[in-house]
Amino acid sequence: MLTSTPGARRRFVATALFLGAAVSLTACGEQRGTDVAVGSSTTSPRSSPSSPGASPYVEPGTVDGAPHNGDNNAYRRSGEMSPASAKDAQKEADRIEPVLKRLWGQRKWDPKSVRAALLELGYEEERTGPKGKRLGGTLTVREMYPRYEVDHNVTPEGALIGLRVHDDACVTAFVQKTNYEVKTNGPFMETGCFEPPYGH
């Protein structure tokens, strides 16, 4: 006859509970079908997780991004150019690019030097009236946009260039210590021939 002590009983009960929990957890997530006769074509149904519908807060056509990303960044989209205006803008970009390449090679990217070099191509500096009305000229050269670093704004070395070719066509460019770029586009909604800085 076996005799059990209270300590042995506790160990037995604890072991039995542990094994019972382990066995039940190993079957977790499995789908059990009913017994099917051999050769039967019946299979147990499988449920497939259905994908949730599109979020009501994301714009149609947005693959990845914040809700209303397109609306929030509309100010960064340039206007449309007509084919004729696009062709004229590309001609002007082709004239400007070698000048910026030369200035970059000479390490001259300050607005004053860039403006002087581009005025030599025959462009006239753009002038505006007190309410922003354009009075003539097509070229604007200015310093780079400031950016926030640590605890204050810093304006990097370089120059931004905006050349208005037609009302619907611009050459947008920059030259700075690390690189330069020249491209054509329609005017931006808020900044004309200058690509706007990123906002928050």
UniProtKB/TrEMBL annotation:
Region (Disordered): 34-93
Bias-annotated ranges (Low complexity): 39-56
Keyword Signal: yes
Domain of life: Bacteria
Keyword Signal: yes
Signal peptide feature range: 1-29
Alphabetic keyword roster: Signal
Protein name from the UniProt record: Lipoprotein
Organism name: Streptomyces violaceusniger
